[in-house]
C-alpha cells in the first residue's frame, strides 16, 4: 500500500497549488451542496475514494477543484465536482 505521505508528495509534484483536506473537510463540502441532488452527487464522488486502500483529498488553491489522489502517477487521481 502506498503511504499517504508519498501520495501527498506526488500530488504536490503534479499540482503544487494543492491544499490537503481532511476527511471531515470533505464531508463538510458534501453537506454544503445547495440541494439534495448536488449533495448526493458529492457524497457519491467521495465514496468512490473508498475503492482505494489509501487516498489523500485535496483542493486546488484559488479554484473550486476538489479531488483525491490514489496513486503516484500523474493520472492516478480523481476530480470531484460540485457547484461552489
Can you walk me through this structure?
It is a single chain. With 84 residues, the protein is an alpha+beta fold. The protein has one domain (16-80). It contains 3 helices and 4 strands. It has helices at 4-14, 23-31, 36-48; strands spanning 18-21, 56-60, 66-69, 77-80. A 4-stranded antiparallel β-sheet has the order 1-2-3-4, sandwiched between helices. α2 (23-31) packs antiparallel against α3 (36-48). The model has no long low-confidence stretch (mean pLDDT 92).
Low-confidence stretches: none
Largest sheet: 4 strands, antiparallel
Number of strands: 4
Strand order of the largest sheet: 1-2-3-4
Order of helices and strands: HEHHEEE
> Helicity, in percent?
25-40%
Write the layout of secondary structure elements.
Layout: H1 4-14, E1 18-21, H2 23-31, H3 36-48, E2 56-60, E3 66-69, E4 77-80
Antiparallel strand pairs: 1-2, 2-3, 3-4
Question: What would you say about this model in short?
Answer:
The chain has 84 residues and is α+β, with helices and mostly antiparallel strands. The protein contains 3 helices and 4 strands; from the N terminus they run H-E-H-H-E-E-E. The protein has one domain (16-80).
